[in-house]
Write a structure and sequence with these properties.
The complex is a heterodimer of chains A (150) and B (199). Chain A has 150 residues and is an alpha+beta fold. In chain A, 49% of the residues lie in helices and 16% in strands. Chain B is globular and about 50 Å long. The chains are: A alpha+beta (150), B alpha/beta (199).
Chain lengths: 150, 199
């Protein structure tokens, strides 16, 4: 009986979607993956970190980890839930990224574009979250700095 | 705001901050597209396929500019929504009534942004082996494209803002505007916040 229960849980785990297994930094990212899943688009979450700056000893001091990679499209996606002023930091790193890795295709979804996408799909409750600032976004920036330090 | 002389609706126009494409600009471009398509598909008896319901306005105007024999059919698709996500993947809610095998099919769309829905529909139609399958879109929003889709015919690039009219809606409103306009930001925010009574 115990084994049956165990197997049942394992099967449930296998059946759970990739979106449910990953701990996303922001709810918008999870919603984004559900939309991609709905349309059968393959995605990977933060599969690669790109070093952006090095100290004189060659240690990475700043790096950038795009949120998603769509293998079939060979496209990295960065979602920004930050308000325009706070997004400057992210924009600067995206510019650096394009300078250092011109062969990498990356697209930034702005906060407003995220909101409009959610509106398009009728997700008004989720879209209304983009009307106010989010403290989660601050956490996100902090987390990316840790990437660089690591 | 630049007014459209043939259209008077204080109720709808009051929500528009600025006209992006006037009715006459749209009609001019639709006419150009009609001529180009008529020339390219001469003697091919094409089938125009559209997805309900935003394309209705563009399809009706485009068809009237086509000078060759043409047939038309429509699809309906379940777009992603808070209800649809519980039903799994995208699916056709209404299929074509016309066989498209060996037919020259022109997929007519009012707007393309991420390309997710269009990619699904084109993939579905390709399995039916049409003689050709091309896309004609009136409004393009390439900045947010996720899936690269070749567009044989294109009307306008949309600005990086929320626009409505000529088929483009917000909560089913504004489709019937004969022009495309930028919605006032406060109206947009208010509409997003409205409790959804349609669910």
């Amino acid at each position: 009986m115990q084994n049956n229960n165990l197997r049942s849980k394992q099967e449930q785990s296998l059946e759970s979607t990739e979106s449910e297994r990953i701990s996303f930094a922001h709810q918008a990212e999870e919603i984004f993956t559900r939309i991609l899943d709905f349309y059968g688009i393959e995605w990977q979450y933060e599969p690669r970190t790109f070093p952006l700056e090095w100290d004189k000893d060659g240690n990475v001091i700043e790096a950038f980890t795009p949120d998603f990679y769509l293998p079939q499209q060979n496209l990295y996606i960065e979602l920004t839930t930050l308000k325009a002023k706070l997004a400057r930091y992210k924009n600067r790193r995206l510019r650096l990224m394009k300078e250092l890795y011109p062969e990498i295709h990356i697209k930034l979804f702005k906060r407003r574009e995220m909101r409009e996408m959610l509106v398009k799909y009728g997700l008004y409750d989720e879209a209304s979250q983009f009307k106010t600032d989010s403290t989660q976004n601050q956490t996100r920036v902090g987390k990316e700095n840790l990437h660089a330090e690591g | 705001m630049q007014k459209d002389k043939s259209f008077e609706s204080d109720e709808l126009e009051a929500d528009i901050q600025e006209v992006v494409f006037t009715a006459s600009e749209i009609q001019q471009r639709v006419s150009e597209l009609g001529k180009e398509i008529s020339k390219d598909y001469y003697n091919l008896n094409p089938l125009f396929v559209g997805v309900l319901k935003g394309v209705l306005f563009f399809m009706a105007d485009l068809l009237r500019m086509i000078t060759i024999p043409v047939e038309v059919d429509f699809l309906a698709v379940s777009s992603y929504s808070s209800d649809a996500r519980n039903r799994g993947m995208v699916r056709l809610d209404k299929d074509l009534g016309t066989l498209i095998t060996s037919r020259h099919v022109l997929f007519v769309e009012d707007v393309i942004d991420t390309g997710l829905t269009l990619n699904y529909l084109l993939s579905t139609l390709r399995t039916r082996h049409p003689a050709s399958l091309e896309v004609c879109v009136l409004f393009d929003k390439p900045r947010v494209r996720l899936i690269d889709i070749p567009l044989k015919y294109k009307g306008f690039d949309l600005p990086d803002q929320f626009v409505v009219g000529y088929g483009l809606d917000l909560r089913e409103r504004y489709r019937n505007l004969p022009f495309v306009g930028l919605l006032k930001s406060q109206i947009l925010l208010n509409k997003i916040s409205e409790s959804d009574t349609s669910r």
